[in-house]
Amino acid sequence: MSIRILATADLHIGRVSSNSERIGSYGATRETWLRLVEWAAEQQVHAVVLSGDLVEHQNSYFEAEGVLGDGLEILNKSEIPVLMVSGNHDFDVLPALLRNRDFTHVHLLGDKGTWEEKTLAIADRDVQFFGWSFPARRISFDPLTDFPADKINPEIPSIGLLHGDYQARESHYAPLSSTGLAATGVDAWVLGHIHKPQTLRDSKPLIFYPGSPHALNPKEDGPHGPFILTIETETPQVHRKKTYFPVRIHHIPLSPVRYERIEVDISAILQQPTDPADTPEGTGEDTHADENDIKAKVVRACRDAAEKHQETSDHLRLLSLDVILTGRIPNIPQVEQWMEKWDVEELVQRTGSIQTVVRKLEHQCTLLVQNLEALSREPSPAGVLARAILDLENKQPSDFLDSLRAKVKNGIDKLNDQPAFSDIRNSADHELLQPESPSMDRLLLSQCHRLLSELLSSNQNPR
Known about the structure:
There is one protein chain. The chain is 30% helix and 24% strand. The chain is of the alpha/beta class. It has 2 domains: 2-251, Purple Acid Phosphatase, chain A, domain 2 (4-Layer Sandwich); 258-460, no CATH class. The strands form 6 sheets. Strands 4-3-2-1-13-16 form a 6-stranded mixed sheet, covered by helices on one side. A 6-stranded mixed sheet has the order 5-6-7-10-12-11, with no helix packed on it. Strands 17-18-21-20 form a 4-stranded mixed sheet, with helices on one face. A hairpin with a 2-residue loop joins strand 20 (348-351) and strand 21 (354-363). The longest helix has 23 residues, at 288-310. It starts with a strand and ends with a helix.
């Protein structure tokens, strides 16, 4: 026999997806909560589990009070039990909201930071649930250190609910260890705190983040929605002297918003390196043909992305795209000049029920040079840039690059420390460059290509 449980976390009722103004109420997490519980009732799942941050914070109390109660009432009428824990955002507001309602089918586990076990009869089979809730906004210790392993009944399935930061020892949001989770003997851990879905361990025990069921910002790209967790109760397995019940998960893409990054290769449009001397001023050479070809390819790529997602989700209403131009091209500054004139925010397409918008357009084009290796041996500024490009692409050590990295890191650190940027740093949507991230070398590579393109172009057109 199988038990089907809907699992999710990090809904953050009270928030609205960035760039979602065009789709009205669909951009609000409260609407996704109602669609989620209606879907659970229609599918007749056996239970719903929520791993923290269901509500954004205390300031969302009044907004959440009505919609949270409405959703829980839908589940109550369908006789679907709900088990949940609070996270760092709703550690105080979620218990307060539940105290105002008399829901006999709703169980907040581990209130005030104490592990709690609850055994429920689900689909004619007992299932154990373990949960621990945040007692404060910041928790710097691992809650698993006092997990009540002695309360586990190995004869029945068990599910753990916990909000925390996996493999992050210095975290202030309940740092969790892989060994700690695996040693508990629980069949499956449903974790909260990380908004992008990810499976950390696929069995014995299953450990996963279902992520937010509603995409909130561009850093949360890809599909979002709850998971169906299926427990096979008739085929327990023994692993390292522990009995486990097999658990499978299946993703349901219910989010009305999706953020994606698409790449558009323009190298075929600007395929051959050109010598400006071959097209002197006044010859009537039309450079607008290439520019319009690139714009047309961007439009087609956006439409193709929407059509692909229309086939996989009936719930998607907004597709927000970051478009990246790629390819080896002969003149990077020329493409950048074209891009400066394009108002990509005006590009809005409708494909069925999906509106597609472009959040930003950038390029990661590299310079088309006939013999970069030969150029890198020249004792010239162009030669220095060519050598830097080759070292970056081949991940070779370089004193020159080390000095550049140090200068960039110093500049970024000063920028990030500016009081004027404090609101941006604290925003969930901020994209400040981190000095130690892989984006450092991508930035250096992009700038080296750009400078080399300008340098070679100026050498061909001396003033």
